[in-house]
Fold this protein.
Amino acid sequence: MLLVEFYAPWCGHCKKLEPEYAKAAAELKAMDDPLRIAKIDATEARDLASKYGVRGFPTLKLFRGLDSVTDYESGRSAGDIVKYMVKKSGPPAATVAAQADVDGLTEKNDVVVLGLFSDAESAAAKTFLGLAAKMDDQIFGITSAPELLEQYGMSSGVVILKKFDEGKAEFAMEDTTTEAAIKGFVTSESLPLVIEFSQETAPKIFGGEIKTHVLTFVDKEADYMEKLSADLNVVAKEYKGRALSVLVPSSESRVVDYFGVKTEDMPRTVIAQMGESGMKKYALDGNTALEPLSQHVAAYFAGSLTPSLKSEEPVPEDMAAPVKVVKGKSFKDVVLENDKDVLVEFYAPWCGHCKALAPKYDELAEKFEGVDSVVIAKMDATANEIDVDGVKIAGFPTLYFFPGNAKDKPVAYDGGREVENFVEYLEKHATTPFDLEAAAGDASPGSDNEL
């Protein structure tokens, strides 16, 4: 068994992973039964990377021989990697015979999921083991020892032992209990009531089952922290299992900037709803305190809030160039509330792929400048947001075509990125016929429309 990281020397995420990966390698090598991990420069071993479906960096895969390869989908900290490898190298759940065995597990791990079953062959025990085999980010133990069943007061169920909050959570099982029910319990109880955002906890936050996140942005050195922490715990406890309460320190600048929060506005709370069509945000007006925070979360679950959307202010210059600049506040006007065929590029100013597309997109817009029925537009999706059904911006650049006769049915553009590819697409899909050559002639210097 070997965990392999496929990396690229220039990749920033790979460089960030490097010290954690090295630390994990050292810990695994020092074990009584050493485990190994490796890395491969995918820019040098292109054929190998292609063979195993490597499309981005870093990509980690677990090899149990060349014909049994699975994706690594756990966290990126050294602890996460070690936990994953230990879990994969042994049985799904460690057999626990006495309290000393339990202590051995809890000493090394912040969270231990312990199954207690008087009948080790029961349907409930088998369901528990089935889940244990699938949850790589948790350490599971299982026991039928009478003294442990008596100590924990359970003959069929799960106890989560954790180094935070109340220290323990219990879940009684029957033979009809499903894996999904146990997983929901484990997922909910294995995180603190209020979890602090970091690169290590991010996979657990965004990859978990709970898709409503109450994010509170704070300066951890501020005087308000003690009172605020108590308030956040009250609300987190009230909505446990329905919403995940997350504390975001001001030092996490990338997340802070993404949500448009300034240090002077902290503490600031934003509810983020993660869905298939993207993220919706519901900002709490004013500073965070117990009563307004509780009311805000209650209003969210009652369905009485509307999403908070960022937008730059539209200016006349937005419409001056061949590529029309769309902003959150002007999106309906320019894109939706007309009968024109509109192609929109959602981009990020820092995105290399967007920069490479820019001159081609400009050229495309120049070609269509004389076609009144077609609009070529772009929107900085880091500074502007929209809430439009059918539009999901998962990366940059993302392009959507809005047909003139079906604005409620936007189409994700998945064609080529050369000018001729865009032209062919628009010729095929435009709802209003156009003559590009004639339009170019009308718009050219010396044409009749200048007289």
In short: DSSP finds 15 helices and 19 strands in the chain.
